[in-house]
Structures are given as C-alpha cells and as structure tokens.
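Record type: monomer structure entry
Structure origin: computed from sequence
Chain ID: A
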Amino acid sequence: MSVYIHSTAIVSAGAQLGENVRIGPFSIVKDDVIIGDNTEIFSSAYIDDGARIGKDCRLFPGVVISTEPQDLKYKAEKTLAIIGDRNDIREYATIHRGTSTGKTVIGSDCMIMAYVHIAHDGRVGNNVIIANATQFGGHVEIEDWAILGGVVKVHQFCHIGCHAMIGADVKIVKEVPPYTLMGKDPAKVEGINKIGLRRRGFSNETIDEIDTFYNVILHSGLNISDGIAKYMEREYICPEVQHCIEFIRASKRGIHN
C-alpha cells in the first residue's frame, strides 16, 4: 500500500517512510528520520532528526519525538531516539534524543499517555504503561511490564524494576524494586504487584516466593544486605527472586523500601 501524506504536512525528501505510513495535517517530519510500516502520525506532530520509529505505531496530535535534549552537556552531536513497534504515544507526549549514551530507547507494545516526558538517554522496556503527565529525568530506566500512574515524577538515573506498579503522583528518587507496588509520600513499597503478576500468568508459588523475599529484606528487622544474605540460605531461589537480588545489588541510588 502507498504512503499517505496530508497536503499540509511537511515531510523531508530524506525521510525514510515504510509501507502504508500515514502522516496527518500540519505534521513535520525532518530529514534524518525512519518510520516503519503501518505507522500513523496524526495531526501537528513534530518528528525531528534522529527519530527511528518502528512498525504499527500511532503518534497522536502534538507528539514531539527526538528533539534536542534539555541537557547542558549536549553539543549538537548526532544522537537518536529509537522507538519500537506497536506503541501508542498519546497527545503532546515528548521524547528527547540521547546525549552521553547517544540514544533514548523505547521498547515495543507500550502505552505512553498524554503529556508524558521521557528525557535524554532514557530506556523504556516492552509492555510498559506510563499514565498522563508523568515526567522522567535523564537516564531513567524502566524494565518490562512496569506501570506508572499519572503525574509520577522520576529523578534522573533512577531504575524501575519489571512488573512494578507505581501509584499516581508519587515522587521516585531511588530505585523501585521489581514486582513491587509503590505508593505514599514519601514513596514506599506497599507490597508486591500480586494482581498484575496473576494476570500475566505467574504461578501462585512464584508470587509467594517473591512476597516472602520482600518480607525478609524489608520487614524482618534486618538491613537490606543482611536480609538478602538470610534469604539466600535457602536451597533454591527462583529466577524471579534472583533477578530482584541482582537488581538490588546493582543499585547505585539505593532502593525505596
């Protein structure tokens, strides 16, 4: 099928457009841009140099992709904003291209809602949901299947673990451990994301193991390191808990607990 470009859109001749790409009225697509098959860009979007957008995406009105980062280290070098397949990016969301790592990366099958800002050098995994007006600092990393409520604020360099769920209007200044539920002010682990894990096919045994692990490291009176050491006295540690341990040990900012 052919490409459709509205008569009021401005699309550079250098842009590479896949099959059946649709570009709506008043949108602008710059020169160094690649857009995959069946992606639709609605009205008044701005797609700047360095954008690499996958297949079957929908970019809603006012979306801004791959503009210069808000970073004093940036010196106009060529960097990228890479977006995977089957993503919905809703109205007026902004995703900046990279600086020091050279790229901002969004996975596939994500829902990025209206007014979300993803700053330079961010990493967002697959199947992530980010609700309205959530704001990321630079170098934030979000693992697969995480869900962030509306108006969440994430400090630069923070890391959010897989299958974590963060409530609305929470301020994140440390790492969010995998599989946890985060809420309150200041942010606090309120439990594990049991409902989400069941919906995604985790067994009751695995969910119980994750729950036991966090009870040991957060509620036994031990510090985090001693709690992990205590838990690791077990004969068997399931892969999901092993990921939690590796995540916590790799943390540079400490974890919310």
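Annotation 1: The two ends are 52 Å apart (CA to CA).
Annotation 2: The chain has a mean pLDDT of 97.
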